Amino acid sequence: MRIWDSSTWMQVGERWKGHTDFVFMIALNPAGTLLASASGDQQVRLWRLSDRRTIAIFKHPNQVFCVNFSADGKHVLSGGRDDMISKWAVPLLGDVPEDQLSNDALREDTLKEHAANLAQQSDCEILVIN
After folding, report:
1. Tens-place pLDDT, residues 5-15
2. In the chain, is it the N or the C terminus that has fewer CB atoms within a 10 Å radius of its CB?
3. CA-based Rg of the chain, rounded to a whole angstrom?
């Protein structure tokens, strides 16, 4: 992902590294501190804007096309090719150990495991759409 200055059409800062396929949608949380991105790589990534680090990765069984935050900013809602909407709890930054925050897409195994553990603690709901 890249950020562009709309007045100059120049890229701002370095490219955000993490997704390995197209990003279809991004969403900003109500507080303006987190960004969620939905990608063809079957992931929703949660980014901290202040340092552009991935703080959580939510895995889908197929491509993810849409993402948004709940009105209170406590959940991420995402949907994709599997015709389901998933509701994920946004982890508090205190819940993610600092050594697991990383810019490096190759160091995400522990983040995936941590996000999966958080989701399995009944904070993830899956809704089926017909």
Report:
1. 888 888 888 88
2. C
3. 14
